[in-house]
Amino acid sequence: MAYSYQHPHPAVTTDVVIFTIQGDRLEVLLVRRGTEPYRGSWALPGGFLDSDEDLKACAKRELEEETGVTGVYLEQLYTFGAPDRDPRKRVISVAYYALVPPDRLQLRAASDAEAVAWYSLDALPPLAFDHKDIIAMAHKRLSSKLDYSTIALQFMPEKFTLSALQKVYEIILGERLDKRNFRKRVITFACIQHTGELAQYGKHRPARLYTVISPGTVEFIK
């Protein structure tokens, strides 16, 4: 006979924060909900965990079903479990986040999402549930990891200049960085290498092009 518990069990969901950089803006991927609660509101991609499903597998499945996004490296962010975070019942959410260049994604709304779109972190619409708090924590984690990891390289195309990489740091942090100190630090990264090619931008001096040796991985800086 199957064992039955005396106490009710909370449901478990996963939510995914996908960051990208377009122009000079840090943006996050949102879906417009097609079901209640909060039907018509914008929210993070996510959904309920199946009883036989791994947490990360659930995050990847929901991300693909609602947005069409696949093949991104997800990192676990935090567990959100406030008793009133979902009006339906007690729901605990395990959040993940990822960083991607916008040209690597082909978006399509599906499953219970009516639409999918990028929104600037500085101009988010009203969000369902506690997703504003989840995004804020993901941004804080991203900013702090710039100090001790190579996470910013996840935003870069196959070939890039150090100036372009510095711009990514500045957009995430919301502040200007000293060019000389930045280059002195980044050039020590063992995970990037000079391609032997140069990029010419207008009348400026040609800039060296770099590439990531092992794309999709994040290394920690000692």
Structural class: alpha+beta
Question: What integer value in Å does the Rg equal?
Answer: 20 Å
CATH superfamily of the largest domain: Nucleoside Triphosphate Pyrophosphohydrolase
Largest sheet: 7 strands, mixed
Termini, distance in Å?
54 Å
Provide a quick synopsis of the model.
The chain is α+β, with helices and mostly antiparallel strands. The protein folds into two domains: 11-145, Nucleoside Triphosphate Pyrophosphohydrolase; 151-212, Winged helix-like DNA-binding domain superfamily/Winged helix DNA-binding domain (Arc Repressor Mutant, subunit A). The chain is built from four helices and nine strands; from the N terminus they run E-E-E-E-H-E-E-E-H-H-H-E-E.
Q: Which helices and strands occur, and which strands form pairs?
A:
Elements: E1 11-22, E2 25-33, E3 42-43, E4 46-48, H1 55-67, E5 75-80, E6 91-99, E7 113-120, H2 131-145, H3 162-173, H4 179-186, E8 192-199, E9 207-212
Describe the structure.
There is one protein chain. The chain is an alpha+beta fold and 222 residues long. The protein folds into two domains: 11-145, Nucleoside Triphosphate Pyrophosphohydrolase (Alpha-Beta Complex), CATH 3.90.79.10; 151-212, Winged helix-like DNA-binding domain superfamily/Winged helix DNA-binding domain (Arc Repressor Mutant, subunit A, Orthogonal Bundle). It has four helices and nine strands. The protein has helices at residues 55-67, 131-145, 162-173, 179-186, and strands spanning 11-22, 25-33, 42-43, 46-48, 75-80, 91-99, 113-120, 192-199, 207-212. The strands form two sheets. Strands 1, 2, 3, 4, 5, 6 and 7 form a seven-stranded mixed β-sheet that branches. The protein has a two-stranded antiparallel ribbon with strand order 8-9. Strand 2 (25-33) and strand 3 form a beta hairpin. The longest helix is centred in the middle third of the chain and has 15 residues, at 131-145. The relative contact order is 0.17.
